[in-house]
Amino acid sequence: MKDNPFSLWVYLSQSPLLWLTVTLLVYATTDAVSLATRRHPLANPVLHAMWIIGAFLLATGTSYTTYFAGAQFVHFLLGPATVALAVPLYENRRRVVSSIVPMLVALVAGSVTAVVSAALLAEFAGLPRDVVLSLAPKSVTAGVAMGIAESLHADPSLAAVAVILTGIMGAIIVTPLMNRTGVTDFRARGFAAGLAAHGIGTARAFQVDEIAGVFSGIAMSLNALLTSFLVPLVVTLLVR
Amino acid sequence: MISALLVLLVCELAGNALHQMLGLPVPGPVIGMSILAAALAFRKGGASSRSPITGSLERTAETLIRHMGLLFVPAGVGLIAEVGVLRSEWLPIAAGLIGSTLLSLAVTGLVMHWSIRRRASRRSPDTVHDLERG
């Protein structure tokens, strides 16, 4: 067994086990740092795990397909985790039912703002039409945004990139922005995070406060519904 | 834990099936979440019933949600692989996304905050006053 160490690497780097382990190890580290900084917005564990793993893949010349063969086991759990949001939703049902009207008002205002501002800012920046259409659904979960982009003959992979970027930015900005604008209510703070920054915002909200997390999950779900109706409408009205 | 995972998977599967069959614009897991919430609310014995399944479901759900950030990492790494789609327009795209994210966060948070306060003050002005002081 006096093999060339390189052949060991070639063997391991093709196995899903290595990339699953790397994903968990890097996230465990970035999450520990996040905890040590008392969940400072800039120490967002998702953001730092992303670029560290990305850099590692680039440095070792590993393709995303090879990486995903291992990471898919983690990715798969997104579905069950979304279903699991029903449990805290149910446990906090009284607070949810009592704020149903403010939620619906904020949903309409926020969803329209997200879609219209993304489309208009992209228009003003002089971006081509297919890019504008791919950016418009950026506040909803990747699956829905890609579906919307596809139905408008825009670029689904650009839509997915816009979704992830928005989620990361939203998760970082939400705490300082809500502090600055004087939004102290955790229901409102969480609802904003989930509406503007979908699941990544919801993961952040649950780190900060359970009530914020519950409202973030509701906002994420309702906005997926509203945005899929809103984007085609806004596009016909605003985009040339 | 097996029974809890089974409950979650069955709800997700049912959600995906409904999404596909009815062509709903909401993703399957979100429909699955609504199914599970309805099942919890209307289960036999009412909201107060405590079965072993409920306890295990609570623990499993709590674990999954507490580590939800981890679950976005594989897709997030894909962003780095796909960053080429931003082409030469990456700067206006990034600027537009930042602007729109700031606006939608602020509008949603403020509208909800005001709306909660308005309703509370209409119900009983004294309570709100106390809440604000406290």
From TrEMBL, chain A:
Q: Which GO terms describe its cellular component?
A: membrane
Q: What is the lineage of its organism?
A: Bacteria, Pseudomonadati, Pseudomonadota, Alphaproteobacteria, Hyphomicrobiales
Q: What is this protein called?
A: LrgB family protein
Q: How does it sit in the membrane?
A: Multi-pass membrane protein
Regions annotated as coiled coil: none
Q: Which domain of life is it from?
A: Bacteria
The record's principal subcellular location, in a coarse class, is membrane
Secretion signal: which residues? none
TM ranges are 6-30, 42-61, 67-89, 101-122, 158-178, 190-208, 214-239
Keywords of the record? Membrane, Transmembrane, Transmembrane helix
Q: Where does it reside? A: Membrane
TrEMBL record, chain B:
Gene Ontology CC terms, in alphabetical order: plasma membrane
Q: Where in or outside the cell is it found? A: Cell membrane
What keywords appear on the UniProt entry?
A: Cell membrane, Membrane, Transmembrane, Transmembrane helix
InterPro entries per UniProt: LrgA/CidA (IPR005538)
Which residue ranges run through the membrane? 24-42, 63-81, 93-114
Q: Does the keyword Transport apply?
A: no
**Where is this protein chiefly located?**
membrane
Q: Record's Pfam families?
A: LrgA
Q: How does the record classify its membrane topology? A: Multi-pass membrane protein
Under which name does UniProt file this protein? CidA/LrgA family protein
Query: Key word Transferase present in the record?
Result: no
Q: Which organism is it from?
A: Bradyrhizobium rifense
